[in-house]
Amino acid sequence: MMNLLLGYQPLLDLFLLHLGLAYAQWLVLRAGVFSLGTVGLAAVGAYTGGILVVTYGLPAPLALIASALSGGLVALALSVPLARLRGIYQAIATVAFIQIVLSLNIYATNVTGGAQGITGIPKTVGTPLLLLAGAATIYLMYAITHSRLGRAFDAIRQNEAVAASLGVSIVRHQTLAFVLSGALAGVYGALEAFHSYALVPSQFGFPYLIAILSYVVFGGRTSLWGPIVGTAVLILLPEVVRPLADARMLVFGILLILTINFLPKGIADTLIERARGRRLGARRPAEADTAKGS
Amino acid sequence: MLLQQLLNGVVVGGVYALFAVGFNLVFGVQRLLNLAHGAVFMTGAFVAYYTVRAGGPLILGFVAAAIASGVLAMIIEIVCFRRLRKSGDAEFGAIISSMGAGMVIMTFWQWVSQTQVLRFPFDTVPVVIYRFWGLRVSLLQLMMAAAAIAIVLVMAWFIYRTAFGRQVRAVTDSERASMLVGINPNRIYNLTYFISGALAGAAGVLVGLAFNNINFTMGEPYLMFGFAIIILGGLGSIPGALMASLIFGMVQTLSIAYLPSGLTTAFIFSAMFLILLVRPNGLMGREEAGSLRGRR
Which positions, given as ranges, span the membrane (chain A) (predicted)? Predict the structure, then answer.
């Protein structure tokens, strides 16, 4: 039994690492920021951590804090142009940001190791630490969801004009969400670096972005359960159904199309909504319609 | 030297125009980004390659590539976008959905090509170099420029001078109003996606010939360049996309020639950021980049 569990340990590590980035992506989407830049911010954090540990010999915990700061600061700088843009323009700008980070990492060979990346990062992060980080992340997200902040994010996402008229500052809240998400992405980028010995620039590219987005879209973009369900299912699926492992990209692609077309809210959100509707319907049949409409 | 670089830049820009005009046409008509456009572009290169390898002439490969890519783009619209457009949250959904479509197409070509880099047989285009006024132009470059100019002119005539084009522009302005005057928007969407895909496919063949390197990831950088071009030209504006493609082609060749190598991409996308900040609507765009409206 124990051996069986140990065999799945790398999978658990992968799940926890991706879960953190999925939450970083989820947080910005919740606040109505149409950013796809999570992977770029993770790259900033990972490189900050990697360089500080390998080149400057800093202890890993300090480097981790620096990674969070760098992710947050870069996000803060990026939020200035983003605040002036809407919708598709934000998506394009953040994808461009990923490209800038990628090409700078390849270009600045003497700082980042160029295309070869950074190797020989001491492995300081194991499963227990990742579990701790996962728990902390989920708690943080839970706290945000159940505070004034979470309600403000929801209001902005649903209708900016109404939110503004209720006195919720759109720019301030979206900046905050983006910075928090950047710091989170930075931390998880660094955790990934400390977990896997090596860093290469291409690691944080388009395919990674697609994976992270799939988790959030597939699981759900508004409820706390969304990223957990999405990441778990999409990471386990190729493992459970072995023949699918080779066709990972194909499965992800088809799932993305099917989910967004037929379950646009994602699995977890749809189930939660349905359960809530049933509960409300049983208690107050007359108000069930209003509940559905809200 | 500078003149030579500018000439090369114009040729490259012409190919970018094929790619970006189709990308922007779709955006103009539906207000949706088709992230599978890079995969459609790649499909053109692959179809032309397999046609030529099966013994067909290059011109047949070119036509087959354009038609196959056009049909593929049409299928993408029907499968990925048609349902979403009615749901009201198509802006985000289309990005996800077309990303998925791009992955499916990429996997398909990865399987077909077995992850190999494919090259056109030597002498598919004879290596002939013309010299005049101290400039060098290869036959391939002439072909690229001619094909780009011809295709863009035909498309401009189609959009601005035919009844079909008038219907396309009517649907662009208002889907509801055009339905009231008896236009079937779905048919128009099929048509615009076909044109957009065929342009991308043609660009794919030309790029495949120019670099003689066809692989299943070749669409991705062009998709990125496509972003930069339509931001510069203005989302939804076809003349803007044309102009921006030429500027972009020239800036790219010049920066490769005169900037430290490796910085080109960073330079281009940083410039794009600046444009977004200073002039978010691009050179000729009408769309409001920062307009405040309820989403989702």
Answer: 34-55, 62-82, 88-108, 129-145, 175-194, 206-237, 249-268
